[in-house]
Design a protein that fits this description.
CATH superfamily of the largest domain: Single-stranded right-handed beta-helix, Pectin lyase-like
Shape: elongated
Oligomer: single chain
Largest sheet: 25 strands, mixed
Helix content: under 10%
Structural class: mainly beta
Number of domains: 2
């Protein structure tokens, strides 16, 4: 990838920070309530404090402002929804003491920015009933040094060439962020997201292209999601109890120098003949061939091993535990668009194996063998197989887990496995499924064949036209469990 965008990016950051430093200059000789003096040609307006003529509402000051003006907000709590349609600077006295709280108006954002060349800096923002705390709907916007507590953090909507710098989302309220810390909409680009701290929620969601996600701290969220896209840079980020989740095959992406739980995040793209046997926090393979991930101990991260559009790769002798979250991030192992992948001799606790997805194309020739799956919650975790051809599950231990086969699974062979206290098997497949069960141990010795009930669906458009019950039979169930050693 051309390095020019990186150079341009850092020039933009430097110029912006220089602008902030030169336009906001403290002066100890003046009244402490008006300690920030303007050096630009624009006018300054003040909200709160005790100065004569100060505004009591932020929106009223915005109404009276013009392009290039600065609005300084003194410490206090302001129950408002803010709409910015002018090129202004909105500055809080201190993010710890200057708070804007949604006034229950039902607007989409507590602060909605609909004009270019706007700076919002130095606030605590609480979106009590709004969707996003801050919404960006224009270009060249800087959001810096804010503390955000809301269902959703910052929404980068119709915005390109904007900077989100040194913000904290989920601030002060553990679990307060239920959605995305930062969400970048799909068609917008050249945004810089740096030095932010995101607690809980879904981290940073990146459907767009050519964005820079660097030097952020992302803690105990479900995942940071990259929805395919191209020319994105994700570097020097720290994930704790979190990680990076792909939701599509990215193009021309740079992922470098990130850590997951203090270990390196290994991202390989178009790589062949490699073995990942060194200590790793998360392993992601994209368009790889003959790569092996082995002897790892993955824990408390979303989707620890991800395989996209790869072939002839092996996942061998790993221990994976407590991978949890949403949007597929509760999978210890996820395999999409891939061919000839072997998952062998792994021990997996309270995490899923996700093989294929209904909207992720097809897998082919997936072998899952000699693995042990255990769940602390009966039937909550297990193996999920969707849209996969020629899948073999053999000699696995499934304890307190489930097996789910959905949509168009063809030529799937399930034999010689131990199903011990497994809560259910769910099978929802397309017309004329080719799924066979044989010689599995079903919790106890059985004199008669084991019946497995499912349904078959014929689809027309997005919904099934016809749903019929379907019966699968293990004609020769094993009379005793197989001796399948665990790797740990």
């Amino acid at each position: 990838m051309d390095k020019n965008p990186l150079i341009i990016k850092y020039l933009v950051v430097g110029i912006t920070l220089l602008f902030l430093g030169t336009t906001i200059v403290p002066s100890p000789a003046q009244d402490t309530e008006k300690s920030l003096l303007p050096t630009s040609s624009g006018k300054w307006l003040y909200v709160g404090g005790s100065g004569p003529g100060n505004y009591t509402r932020i929106q009223n000051a915005i109404k009276d402002s013009k392009d290039g003006d600065t609005i300084f907000v003194f410490a206090g709590t302001y129950y408002e929804n803010i709409l910015i349609k002018k090129a202004i600077n909105l500055l809080g006295e201190n993010a710890n003491t200057t708070t804007i709280i949604d006034n229950f108006s039902g607007n989409e954002s507590t602060i909605a920015i609909q004009h270019s060349n706007v700076i919002v800096k130095g606030f605590t923002i609480k979106g009590e009933q709004t969707f996003y705390a801050i919404g960006l709907y224009s270009n060249y916007i800087t959001v810096q040094g804010n503390h955000i507590s809301s269902d959703e953090g910052i929404y980068v909507g119709s915005s390109s060439n904007s900077i989100l710098y040194n913000n904290i989302t989920g601030y002060g309220l553990p679990g307060s962020l239920t959605g995305c810390g930062i969400y970048i909409d799909s068609i917008f680009s050249n945004n810089i997201i740096e030095h932010n701290s995101i607690f809980s929620g879904n981290g940073i969601s990146i459907p767009g292209n050519h964005n820079f996600i660097n030097d952020n701290l992302i803690v105990q969220d479900d995942c940071t999601i990259l929805y395919g896209g191209s020319l994105n840079v994700i570097s020097n980020n720290t994930f704790r109890g979190s990680g990076l989740l792909l939701n599509g095959v990215p193009e021309d992406i740079i992922v470098s120098n990130n850590t997951v739980n203090g270990k390196p995040l290994v991202f390989l793209d178009n790589t062949s003949n490699r073995v990942i046997d060194y200590d790793t926090g998360q392993g992601i393979l994209v368009r790889c061939e003959n790569v092996t991930v082995e002897n790892q101990n993955f824990s408390h991260a979303p989707c620890c091993i991800q395989v996209f559009a790869s072939k002839h790769c092996q996942i061998v002798n790993n221990t994976i535990s407590y991978c949890y979250g949403e949007f597929g991030s509760d999978s210890g192992i996820a395999i999409y668009y891939s061919d000839t992948i072997m998952v062998i001799d792994n021990t997996i606790y309270s995490s899923n194996i996700q093989i294929g997805q209904w909207d992720f194309g097809y897998n082919n020739n997936i072998i899952v063998s000699r693995n042990t799956y255990r769940s602390t919650e009966l039937g909550y975790y297990g193996i999920n197989i969707r849209n996969t051809y020629n899948c073999t599950l053999s000699y696995n231990n499934l304890v307190n887990t489930y097996l789910e086969l959905v949509f168009y699974d063809r030529n799937c062979k399930i034999y010689s496995n131990n199903f011990i206290n497994s809560s259910y098997i769910n099978i929802e497949v397309g017309h004329f499924p080719h799924i066979t069960f044989n010689h599995n141990y079903w919790e106890k010795p059985r004199l008669f064949p084991k019946f497995i009930f499912g349904i078959t669906e014929k689809f027309g458009g997005d919904y099934p036209e016809q749903v019929l019950p379907w019966l699968f039979i293990d004609w020769h169930p094993a009379q005793k469990p197989y001796d399948i050693p665990s790797t740990s």
